[in-house]
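testing teh design pipeline on a random one, pls ignore if ur not involved
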C-alpha cells in the first residue's frame, strides 16, 4: 500500500502509544479503562491529559465541515531598528567609542557619544534612542 502522506515523528509516537494501549488491553483480555469512560480511554491511549482531549473534542465539534485542525505557529519577533544608520555612521560611532576609552581614558556615556557625533558628523540626525 503506497500512502503519499508523510507521517511526522509526533504522529508516529502517538500511533505507537495507541498501539501499546490496545496491545495491553488485548493481553489482559478486557478494557483497561471501561468503555463508558471514552475521554479517559482516549487520554490514556494517546498519552495526553483528559483536559487536552476535551479541548480537542470541543474544537473538533466547532470546526467547519472539511476543515483541518491548525497547529500553533512559532512566532519570531524581529526588533525593528530605531534608526537607519548607514555603514559610515556605524564606523564613526565605533571610532568615537574607541577614542573615549583609549585617548580620553574615560567611559563613554550615551550623551557624550551623541554630543561627539553631532560635532564630528555634520549631518548626524540621531538621538539618544539611536544607540539603544
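output:
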Amino acid at each position: 500500500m503506497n500512502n503519499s502522506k508523510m507521517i511526522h515523528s509526533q504522529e508516529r509516537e502517538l500511533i505507537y502509544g495507541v498501539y501499546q494501549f490496545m496491545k495491553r488491553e488485548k493481553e489482559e483480555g478486557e478494557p483497561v479503562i471501561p468503555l463508558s469512560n471514552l475521554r479517559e480511554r482516549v487520554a490514556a491511549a494517546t498519552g495526553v491529559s483528559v483536559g487536552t482531549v476535551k479541548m480537542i473534542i470541543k474544537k473538533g465539534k466547532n470546526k467547519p465541515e472539511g476543515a483541518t485542525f491548525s497547529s500553533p505557529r512559532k512566532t519570531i519577533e524581529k526588533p525593528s531598528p530605531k534608526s537607519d544608520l548607514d555603514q559610515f555612521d556605524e564606523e564613526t560611532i565605533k571610532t568615537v567609542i574607541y577614542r573615549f576609552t583609549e585617548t580620553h581614558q574615560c567611559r563613554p556615556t550615551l550623551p557624550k557619544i551623541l554630543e561627539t557625533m553631532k560635532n564630528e558628523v555634520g549631518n548626524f540626525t540621531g538621538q539618544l534612542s539611536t544607540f539603544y
